[in-house]
Specification:
homodimer, about 325 residues, alpha/beta, Rossmann fold, 2 domains, 12 helices, 12 strands
Amino acid sequence: MKKRTILLIGKYKKVESDISRYKRNFFVLAIDNLLGIKSLKKHDLEKIEAIAFKGHTNFNFPIMKKFPSLKIISNFGVGYDTINVEDAKKLNILITFTPDILNDDVADMAIALYLGISRKLLDGYDWIKSGKWKSLGEMPLNRKVSGSKCGILGLGRIGFEIAKRLESFKTEIHYYSRTKKNVSSNWVYYENPVELCKNVDNLFIALKGGAATKGFVSKNFLKALGRNGILINISRGSVIDENSLLDVLEKKKIYGAGLDVFLEEPNINQRYLKLDNVFIQPHQASATIKTRQAMGDLQYQNIASYFENGKPLTVIPEMK
Amino acid sequence: MKKRTILLIGKYKKVESDISRYKRNFFVLAIDNLLGIKSLKKHDLEKIEAIAFKGHTNFNFPIMKKFPSLKIISNFGVGYDTINVEDAKKLNILITFTPDILNDDVADMAIALYLGISRKLLDGYDWIKSGKWKSLGEMPLNRKVSGSKCGILGLGRIGFEIAKRLESFKTEIHYYSRTKKNVSSNWVYYENPVELCKNVDNLFIALKGGAATKGFVSKNFLKALGRNGILINISRGSVIDENSLLDVLEKKKIYGAGLDVFLEEPNINQRYLKLDNVFIQPHQASATIKTRQAMGDLQYQNIASYFENGKPLTVIPEMK
C-alpha cells in the first residue's frame, strides 16, 4: 500500500491516539490546532490526503482549500458542528465521526449533573471541608431525585440512553423530538418543546449542535420550565440562549442547572463562577479512558479503511 | 383522648417535625440531644410516655430508666443501631422506625457517590474554577461507569434499589446476602463476601448497622477489591474497619471511595480530608425535603397511632 501523508490536528492524550500505529502506516504531520497550519510548508500541505481532527474551532472552506489533496476529515467525537459539511461537499472531502461509542459516557454525565445539582454535592463536600458539619450540624435539605417528571429535548441515541437511566429512578419520561419515536408507550411525546418544558421538573438537553439548533432553547423555554425547574445540558453550549440562561439563574427564576458545555469553551462566561445554583464540568462527558481509547481507534480505522477499500466505517449521515 | 406528655429529642429542621401538630395533641417537651436530659425536671421525666428520637448517640438502659412511664421510642430514620433493642425489651418499651420512605434517596446518593468518584466531579469543577481548563486544556481522563461489574453487600431494600439503578447503567450485578434472594436470575449470588469483592470493579455497602456488622468490611475485603476497585458506603461508618480503609486509600491500594457515612460523625477522621481519591458527603443520603417531611410524618403517626389503638405503624422487626 502506498504510504500516504496524514495530518493530526488537536491535542490528543496518549490513550486517544496511537501515534506509532499511525507512523507505521502513514507519513505523519501533527499540529495542536488549526492555527498551526501556518507552520506547515506548502509541499506538505499539498501532500496531505487525510486529517485526523480533534477540536472545537471552525473548519471551513478557506481552510479546507489549503489542502488540495485532502480526501477525508476523520473527526474525533460525535459532534462535528464546527466542520462545515456543505463546504466539504463542494470540495469532495468525506467527513467521518465517532458515533455511539460515547453515548453511555455522555448519558452517565447527564445523570451525574442531575444528581450533582439536585443533591447539592458540591455544598455537601464544602460542608465537611469548611468544618460546618461539626459546628452547625446537618447541611440544608435538598431536592429529591427519584419520582420526578423529566423532559428530554432531542431523543437521539444519547437522549434515549439518558431516558433509560432516568427510568430506573422511577421517573416519568416526557420528550420532544422532530418526529414521534418508536419507544415505550409510557414516554409522553410533545410536538411543542415549550409545552414539554411547562410539564416537567427537570429538562435534559440532548439536541445535536450546529446552525439548526443555535439558541433553540430560548427565554420562553426557561420561563416555561419555571422557578422549580432544573436544566441539564450535555450537548452543545450553542443550543441555549446563554445570556437568558445566566439571567434566570442569577434571578433564581429556575432552580438550577447542571452543565458540561458552554457557548465559549474553555473561556466560559465568568458569570457562571458566581452562581450557587449550578453544577458545572469542563466538557468532560466523554472523557473516560475506555471511551477515548475507542474513539481514537475508530478515528484511525476510518482513515485506514478509506485508503484500503474506499469505505470508511462511520461517515456522517449527510454524506451517506 | 387523654393528653399525654411526649419528648422530642434531636435537632429537627422545620419540615421534619410539625411542632404545632404535636402541641395540638400532646404536652410537648423538647431537647437537642440526650445530654439535655439533665435539664429536665424529675416530675417531667416521670410523665413522659413517648419519645420522638433523632440522633446518633447511644440510647441504652441507664438512659431509658430515667423515664419510668416511657412506652414508645419513635425513631426518625431507618437506622436505629444506637438504640439498644434488648434494653428496651427489658423495659417493655416499643421502638418504631421510618423504613422504606428513604430507600430511593439513599439509593440515589449511592449512585451520586459512584458517579462522583468515577467521573471525578470535584476535580472537574476545580478544573474550571482554578483556570486550568483555560491554561492546560482538557482535564485528565477518568473512569467509565457504564458496563462495569458491581457488587452489593447486603441486598435489603436499599441494596435492591441500588442494584435496580445500576442495571440501567448496563451493569453486571453481583451480591452478597445471608440468604439468596428471589431476584433477577442475572444477578450473581455469593455466599462468601470476600469472593464477591474479588469479582467486581465497584463495591456498594448496603448492610444494616449495629453490633452484628461492626467492622464487617475488613482488610481482607479491601485487598480482594484491589487496586482498581471503588468502594461506596451509604449504610453506616461502623460496618467498615475504617483504619484499614484509610490505609488502602492513602497507599492507593484501591482506586477510590465514595462515602456518605463515617465511624465518627460529624468529627470525621481528618485523614479523609487529605485524600484526592475520595468523594465524601456529610451523611445526607436521606436529606431531601420530601423525604424528611415524610419521615417526620411517619415518626409522628407512630406515636399518635400507639396512643389511639395501641398499634404503631412501623415497629422494628425485632419487636414484631
